[in-house]
Fold:
Amino acid sequence: METLTNRGRAVRLGATALGLALLLAGTLVGSDDHFPFGPFRMYATNNPPDAPAPDTRVEGVDATGALVDLGQRATGIRRAEIEGQQGRYQADPALLREVADAYAQRHPDAPELVEVRIVVRWHGITDGRPTGRHVDETVARWAAG
Structure:
């Protein structure tokens, strides 16, 4: 068995100290973007027992007026990607055109989408249990020009 040189020890201690410093900094001021050195908020928090629970979806309206589910199967875009960028879509709804384009690429023979919207369904919760009631809130909407 070989013994570690002083330089080897110093490198390992330095790497360990750097890793611990990043972990501490991420814990104190980090966000999801800093994972694995920052907290992954989804697992680091909980909702109050009487707070409504959000369920986000993306839907569209085609040229015939039909409502179209724009989930992952329809567009190739995961719901988590939409939720993670929701603030950007709210600030600039024109970005939802990308969802319409993704749908058109996967469904070239389908009627064109004339509207895409992000809708959050707020499920009622009382004492940590669902009430069966919900409210839909459209948080971003793009309409073809």
Summary: The mean pLDDT is 90. The CA atoms of residues 50 and 126 lie 5 Å apart. The two ends are 73 Å apart (CA to CA).
